Every structure is written in C-alpha cells, then in structure tokens.
C-alpha cells in the first residue's frame, strides 16, 4: 500500500494483475461467491479466499518490494493490532463451534485484506478494479430495479419480501455495497460520468428501501461536493431530476401494486427498527459491566438474543472492553492515514458500523478498503483515466 504522491510505473506482469483484480471484484464485490454457494452452484467462499491468498503469496515471492510497502502502510499496523487483539482473547475461548467459527472468520478476513492489498499494489490492477467496480455497480442497480419490478427472481429463499437485494441476499448489504463502490471509484472516473454514476447508485439504493444505505450514499454525495469533485451545474440538475424521478417511481410502483406493506411503511417513515436499537444497547450494557477486558471473544454470539448486536462498535466493545471500543474507529482512521483521498470511504464505513456488526468480515468492504488504501496519497486524479485508455492498459 504505497505512501507516495505519484503513481509508480506498472511492473512486468501488470496485465495479469489487472485480470486478477477484475476477477476479485467480480467475485467478492458482487457477493457472487456467497450467492453461488447458497444455491449450491459454487464452493464455499473460504475456498475463493484461500485461492486469492495463495495468489498474493505468489506475487509477493516475485516482488518482495510489495511486501515492504504493505508493511509500511498504516492499515497494516491496524491489521497487526487486530490480529494480536484477536489472538490474545482467543486463548480464553471455550470450544463452542460458534466461537471457533468467529475466530477463523477473523483470521480469514485479516488474510483476505492483506492479500488484496498486495494484489492492488499495481497501477494496472487498480485501473482494472475501478472499471470492474463501475460495471458491477451498474449490474447491482439493474438487478435491484428488475427485482423491484418483479422482472427477475432469485433462487435463494431467505429474502426480505418487497425489498430488492440481488446477489447480496440482504437488502441492507446491497444498498451499502453500492454506496461503498460509488465512494471509492467516483473520483477515479472522468468528471462527466460522476453525476450519472451517483444517480444510478441512488436508484439502486432506493430499490433496497434501506435507510442506513441511504444515509451512507448521502455522506458520499456530501463528501464529493465538499471535495468539489462534481460540477455545480451537474449537481443542481441531478438533484432536481432525482426528486422528479423518485416521485415518479414511487407513484408508478404504488399504482402497479409493486410495493409491499413493509416498503410503504419505510417510505412513510413508519417502519420501526425491529428492536435493533435495544439489541445494540444490550451489547453496550455488556461493555459497561466489563469495560476493562470485555466479556470475551464472540460474547454477542452466545447471549440469549438469538441475533447479534447490529453495531460494530458495541460488538467489539462487548468482546474486548475499551480496546475493542477503539478498534473500529482505529480501522477507519487507518484507511484515512493510508490515503487521505479515501476519507469518503472511511466516513461511510464509520456510519455503516452503527447498523452492522459484520463490516470487518464483509469481503466487499475489505476489498474496497484494500483498493482505496492503495491509491497514491494526495493524488486522486492521475489515475482517473478515460475508460477507453484504462481498458487498453488493463
């Protein structure tokens, strides 16, 4: 993860790096690895993760300088801290299968984040990843809209009625993935395409009826406006057009009876939080009872609630005490320190941590983190190539 102000020349083998990066985006950003396994058409996601870790190790053997740059990254310092924290608390876990799975999941996420960091340490890999993410955002939006209009159905059964999710299976995950993808790539594409990308992302998020994802996308837009990454005229036009498009879409869906009762309630802000705030507060109370060392690894797995806390901050605090409470903010800070231009991604991840307990296990989020941390510091524009040129280089 380079800490330099200018992009380095592509190394030999960059073409293969580009292909590997694009395949990684297709598998992990889209959640196809998990969806394929859920419908019995693909091996477990762990197999894909191990495969990419092996590829990263092979790349490291060919170019040891990548390892040196990776070890110098602020994000790698956080990874070391997270590894030591997990390992220290793992000493005291029982043999419960849930806790063993929690431990292996953390180690798997650590290995995946480092592996993708090595793979994205190449300009061609980053250019290919940006193009692949843009294509996958478009695909996710198209699937969400088609699912809302009942034009497509998905074989996976445990879906939320009336809310689109595509390959992500969970509508909140789908909406947040779109928001995160937009946050990472908007400043890397030609300026004329940025507002259309935001509008497209807004349509995809709206189809999920996810309030958390909507807030995340709003943060992205505000960050881009603050960065002056969008033309003022385009923003005004997009805002007016977006309002009219939204009103028309809602009217159309209601008139064709395509909205579920739950979706209508969410539009009217009448849907409650399904008890999630209470669950999160219970995790916070666990932390307050044991603020020093916490309640142990996976403490919100073995409690009597049946579901987890839906809050990354409180989940880690309940597990590890004060150090756990600081772990997730430190993760977002490490992203910012690795690349100041990735502050938008860090802000979105900070917000998503308030309504998800699985951000640090989510391969989509980890992949985008590794990519954003690898962009050259303080220089977001040099790699923003025209799409045709980027495709040619990739």
Characterization of the model:
With 394 residues, this protein is mainly α. It has one domain (14-275, 372-393). 66% of the residues lie in helices and 0% in strands. It has 18 helices and no strands. It has helices at residues 14-29, 32-38, 45-62, 64-72, 74-90, 97-119, 123-148, 171-185, 194-206, 211-226, 232-255, 261-267, 276-289, 312-320, 322-338, 343-352, 363-374, 387-393. α3 runs parallel beside α6 (97-119), α5 (74-90) runs antiparallel to α6 (97-119) and α6 (97-119) runs parallel beside α17 (363-374).
What are the key terms here?
394 residues; globular; mainly alpha; disordered N terminus
Question: What is the strand and helix layout of this fold?
Answer:
Layout: H1 14-29, H2 32-38, H3 45-62, H4 64-72, H5 74-90, H6 97-119, H7 123-148, H8 171-185, H9 194-206, H10 211-226, H11 232-255, H12 261-267, H13 276-289, H14 312-320, H15 322-338, H16 343-352, H17 363-374, H18 387-393
Helix pairs in contact: 1-7, 1-17, 3-4, 3-6, 5-6, 5-15, 6-17, 7-8, 7-9, 7-18, 8-9, 8-10, 8-16, 8-17, 9-10, 9-11, 10-16, 13-14, 14-15, 15-16
